[in-house]
Design a protein that fits this description.
Strand order of the largest sheet of chain B: 7-6-5-4-3-2-1-8-9-10
Mean pLDDT of chain B: 93
Structural class of chain A: mainly alpha
Number of strands of chain A: 2
Shape of chain A: elongated
Largest sheet of chain B: 10 strands, mixed
Distance between the termini of chain B: 41 Å
Oligomer: heterodimer
Number of strands of chain B: 12
Helix content of chain A: 40-55%
Radius of gyration of chain A: 18 Å
Distance between the termini of chain A: 40 Å
Low-confidence stretches of chain B: 400-409
């Protein structure tokens, strides 16, 4: 990679502040970075499934297109 | 929807070239803003002629430039401004305009659209009373909104640029409501910088510790704007990191501020052909050459005044920025802001993360002017940085008279 390409930081999923890629403990909020990422992914998956279920229900009721 | 042409690809970083050029077509201006960094008023005595300007367009296209933003002064005060817009488009680049819009009449807008202008940003620095005071011309706020509305009706992408100065904070929520109602799609905010007339009238500058109040306010406006289809964009000198970075600069792909881009993918051109790595940088220090003497490509590739950010490392930083957690990425942020304030880049007190860190230790930073600017376009004076307990008495508000200037017809 070119030396001119910018550094890419990671994100602490507990406080949503940027952190260096190899951090284990967030320097901003003290969270376990890996644990916070797993928790975030779990919540994200739940929210995605809920949105899909809601969309399917609305489609059954004819309120939205099945593909919306 | 296609990505804006200014978005940078990995290849753009591998091969620094001017993706975006910002071109002061003339220093002639019909406003008399008391925060103007370039002290715009009369045209420079030796501005490029039409033939020279068209050659600049050719050279920019050859260098791989993708967007040219025309500024001033007021670009529309040049008689050949639509000829230059047409040439930019014919060369395959995006043509955009940044204007105070006091006399950006329907006829001028129509002519620019016919020539190929694609987008416009209008500078608005408060509601009517504050804007007209800062811009030095009564009625300039109304004229700016009229111009925006006509540009919208002519199909241009319309945006607003706003400087965060000491008098604007109370106006910002109502400004957002007006912009939403007007159909503005993006609103870029940036801090007023201690350059030119803003260095003379330094009471317009905010204090670094005020970021603790300003950033949450701006973020609340960002969230409200997003819900109404308006994107508030933090400018390059509004940062850095802190609790909002991932939300308003990051988007879905979690991008973040990556340091000053001057001379890496941005180019500034002054009306007399002077080339800089960013249009806002002080001329005395960052002029890399002139198109009358050298090709832009040669200036871009060989001038150290343009290459200074390509080689910047943490060893170039000082003060709090030197030991900051984000030093390797941020590299003290906007070079224009820091150099004009403290006489050299590398230490930036206008940082939300830094203000929060200091606040947690019971401290804050305040700037104090110690040296007048000489009075030239893009000049600067001198300021000292005072670190003090955060409960220190407020600095006295200076009531100095503003620089009063005649206005061009």
């Amino acid at each position: 990679m070119s030396a001119l390409r910018p550094h890419q930081l990671g994100l602490c999923r507990a406080c949503h502040q940027f952190i260096k890629p190899l951090e284990r403990e967030c320097p901003h909020c003290g969270a376990n970075v890996l644990r916070a990422a797993l928790d975030y992914q779990e919540r994200h998956d739940m929210a995605t499934r809920a949105a899909q279920d809601l969309n399917a229900l609305l489609a059954e009721l004819g309120l939205v297109s099945p593909h919306s | 929807m296609s990505e804006p042409v200014r978005y940078l690809s990995p290849e753009d970083f591998d091969r620094p070239h001017p993706v975006h050029a910002v071109w002061e077509l003339t220093l002639a201006c019909d406003l008399k803003c008391n925060h103007c960094g370039s002290r715009a008023q009369k045209a420079r005595p030796d501005e490029l002629g039409t033939h020279e300007a068209l050659d600049v367009v050719r050279q920019l296209a050859k260098l791989g430039c993708r967007e040219v933003t025309l500024i001033g002064g007021e670009a529309y005060l040049r008689k050949d401004w639509t000829t230059i817009i047409a040439a930019i488009r014919q060369a395959g680049m995006k043509a955009t305009l940044q204007s105070g819009a006091r006399n950006l009449t329907r006829a001028r807008i129509d002519a620019a659209v016919e020539a190929g202008l694609q987008a416009i940003g209008v500078s608005i620095d408060g509601l009517a009373e504050i804007h007209d005071e800062i811009r030095g011309v009564e009625g300039s706020f109304d004229r700016a909104l009229e111009a925006l509305a006509h540009c919208r009706d002519r199909g241009l992408d319309i945006s607003v640029n706003t400087q965060i100065h000491s008098k604007i904070l109370g106006d910002l929520p109502a400004m957002l409501d007006q912009f939403i109602a007007l159909g503005v799609k993006s609103w870029q905010v940036q801090l007023t910088v201690a350059m030119g007339r803003a260095a003379d009238n330094d009471e317009v500058l905010i204090q670094p510790y005020q970021l603790l109040e300003i950033m949450p306010l701006l973020f609340s406006l960002f969230e409200k704007g997003r819900a109404h289809g308006l994107l508030l964009i933090p400018g390059n000198n509004l940062g850095y990191f802190g609790p909002y970075e991932a939300h308003w600069r990051g988007g879905e792909d979690h991008t973040h501020f990556i340091g000053c881009n001057a001379g890496q993918n941005t180019l500034g051109i002054e009306a007399d052909g002077t080339i800089k790595g960013c249009p806002s940088l002080p001329t005395s220090v960052y002029a890399g050459g002139n198109v009358r003497d050298l090709d832009i490509e040669k200036i871009w590739n060989e001038s150290p005044e343009l290459a200074f950010t390509r080689n910047r490392t943490t060893a170039d930083l000082w003060g709090h920025c030197q030991t900051c957690y984000y030093a390797e990425v941020c590299k003290a942020g906007c070079s224009w802001t820091t150099h004009t304030l403290l006489g050299r880049p590398g230490n930036n007190p206008y940082c939300h993360y830094r203000a929060l860190q200091l606040d947690a230790r019971g401290l804050r930073e305040r700037i104090v002017k110690v040296k007048q600017a000489p009075g030239l376009p893009f000049d600067y004076g001198g300021f000292e940085l005072v670190e003090e307990p955060k409960d220190s008495p407020a600095a006295p508000v200076k009531k100095a008279g503003h620089t009063r200037l005649p206005v061009l017809a």
